[in-house]
Automatic annotation (TrEMBL):
Region (Disordered) residue spans: 198-218, 406-431
Protein name (Swiss-Prot/TrEMBL): DUF2125 domain-containing protein
Transmembrane stretches, start-end: none
Taxon lineage: Bacteria, Pseudomonadati, Pseudomonadota, Alphaproteobacteria, Rhodobacterales
Superkingdom as given in the UniProt entry: Bacteria
Ranges of compositional bias, category Low complexity: 406-424
Species, as recorded: Paracoccus solventivorans
Amino acid sequence: MFLRTATSTLAVLALTVPAFGDVSPAEVWQNWIEYYQANGYNVTEGTREEAGDTLILRDVAITYAAPGDELDLRFVAPEISLLATGDGRVRTTLADTIPMSVRFAEDGEDVTLTGALTLRDSEIVTSGSAEDMTHDSRMGEVSLALQTMQTGATTRDLPVTLTIANLTSRQNVTRTDAMRFDVEMAAERLNLEADLADLDDAGTGDDGSEGSEGPTRVKLSGVVNDLRGASTGVMPLDADPGTDMAAALRAGLDVSGSLAAGAGRFELDVAGTDVEGQPENVAGHYTVEGTDVSFGFGADGLKYQGAIDSTAAEFTVTGLPAPISYSMAETTFDVQMPVLKSDEPAPFKLAYSIGGLSLADGIWDMFDPQKVLPRDPASLDIDVTGLMRLTMDLFDPALARAAEAAGDDAAGSDGMDATGDDAATPNPFEPTEISLNKIALSAVGASFDSSGELRVPESGDMTQPVGTLNARIEGVNGLIDRLVQLGVLNSDEVAGYRMMLAMFARPAPEGGDALVSEFEFREGGEIFANGQQVK
């Protein structure tokens, strides 16, 4: 729920830039309303004052209500002024402060957040015609500040502020049989500040009795530099993605975009007391050299890809003898999947990689002070592609309701449904082919690398795939010896572990500390390892 709320709030923030223009202020305003409505929002005016080349609107409410009363967003602009410049353009300015509220349900209780959107040195200039318009905007500073959080009858301060400095954008919008847009945005800097005090948390004492941890204070600050973004899309005029996303996708909704950022740094300080009244503290920082993310969303499917360059973190924790410190050279991810029900299989992809993961010597020394294990950087590489069918639209409200009902049944019956079986969670995914392009792990002087192809048999039983997997393990015998030296493994157990390895792997042809395996999955659920049946 928190993620949905945060995402929707940021969407409203992005839409604060008026999106249309024409030769008259009234036409600009009307197109602005239509743009918001195409995104599932409602726009209502308090009062309207029109004189000559100027249109002034007061107490304008921009609202969004999610289906099922799960989420309600509300921004109220005290004043919006649209002025024809005399050269075919329209200049739009907004009130410096725009109050906002967010209401959602959490654990059966209504939660309401209040705050304000603050603009400084802002201006939007629109040119073109009703069918083809370009909007140039600049904002010296945009700040979204939360102020309070009300849960039931309790209200507490919630000082969280997100500020963007020197934001500029250019947006081109055309309107024919559908609404099409192209947007480019840039900002000098993004700052985040949060100071949350008196966060109480119940706990359990060492003797098992219920206790209460003392008030906790969380301070978070961060800065990200050099933000750049772009997006393009098609929005059907006769579909509402807020109430029926699947119908909007079938009607032609298609959006793609990218977001890149430069170096960033975040600092965290959490202070409080445990159930025994002793002070507890977690403090540290996280840095990143750069981030690049792209997305695509349409009838062809969902794509979410990105890369994060050179991250590092260091935290001190009460009770630990050394800081928790690590760094990663690069992290990448690539998720692609279908979103609409279809009898024909569609491609999917799941890829994730971590390169150059290094732990600080202080962490190693906690369990390996003699430096028995190699401390070379670790890596992880997962790359899986294939074909799958969707038995339901991924955004079908019935799927969400069924998943929620299954979760409620599991929570109320210790994971069992009314028949005594495990509570069922709907699964619309039916893979038909799976390619394990690469699953690899390298750490502590050993490495594992595998690949292969699997498919669903004629019987359609996905639990008994058919295909072949190949694997290679290097350095495992040396790792076993080192674990014995560390005392993690008992020397009497080593023979058993090596016998188990021999059942599923054979020495590599070139010799050395390397093993290879070939697993064959046959019709009927039979499994062979290096030609020997193991199931």
